[in-house]
Amino acid sequence: MARLEEFEALCRVVEQKSFSRAAESLxxxxxxxxxxxxxxxxxxxxxxxxxxxxxxxxxxVGRAIYDxxxxxxxxxxxxxxxxxxxxxxxxxxxTIGASTVPGGYLLPLLLGNFKARYPQVDISLxxxxxxxxxxxxxxxxxxxxxxxxxxRDSHLNFDPFMQDCLVLVVPPEHPWAGREAVSYEELLEAxxxxxxxxxxxxxxxxxxxxxxxxxxxxxxxVAEIGLQESVKTAVRAGLGVTIISRMxxxxxxxxxxxxEVPVKGLEWNRNLYAVYRRMTPLSNLARTFLDFVRQDVxxxxxRARER
Length: 307
Hints:
The protein is of the alpha/beta class. 49% of the residues lie in helices and 22% in strands.
């Protein structure tokens, strides 16, 4: 029967892509890691890993087993966490995920405040797009996620914790910079730079346009870029215009490096959400942090908008 340490060894090798780095992170020898992987392969009767050049990669079966192994290891860690927390202490380690707006502009401030109140807590923050973050919550890699869009999934809860506003911005030399507003027909003709598919902002734009009978595919999208900073740089360079969270461009708007232009008849207001698994009780630490976010987010969001 497979043991917990064998599952943990598999997770580390897959994530580190190396037996030696996995051994180092586990503080055991490389031969010990190799023996644990060999034992797992004998248990399942199939090869789980193979070497691809200088890196170790999971086989197709190995990837599937890894997903289960990650859940087993994380659930064990959560069970230990819960046992400690039953004494009423807020301490331990929490891994959370976030999309770029909450992850880049809100959570760093919230985490600093939370750490000041609970110095024995260790929280890791991983930033990706909304879709990736939701996937990782489903796969038990994050206990909590903070995202800018929802998904229909009976396994998940999406709790709104604040509102965000998306705005159309252009460079100051753009013909629209002096306009009071533009029409959505004009927006359809403009070279548009958006974040990559999977970002919460792009999902909200698509939904808002469809509500108004405008097909997302009719937009003149000239580039899809993963990083918000890169989107802003491209707009300032004159490559196009963008629709982005006002929180992300507040400094550029204040300095006149970008200009906000309203679109007649269109508003892109959205909620930001905390996402967690519906059937898995939150640990005391995760529950305490989520309650803290709900209480502290107003003052923190005001600070983020003023940066």
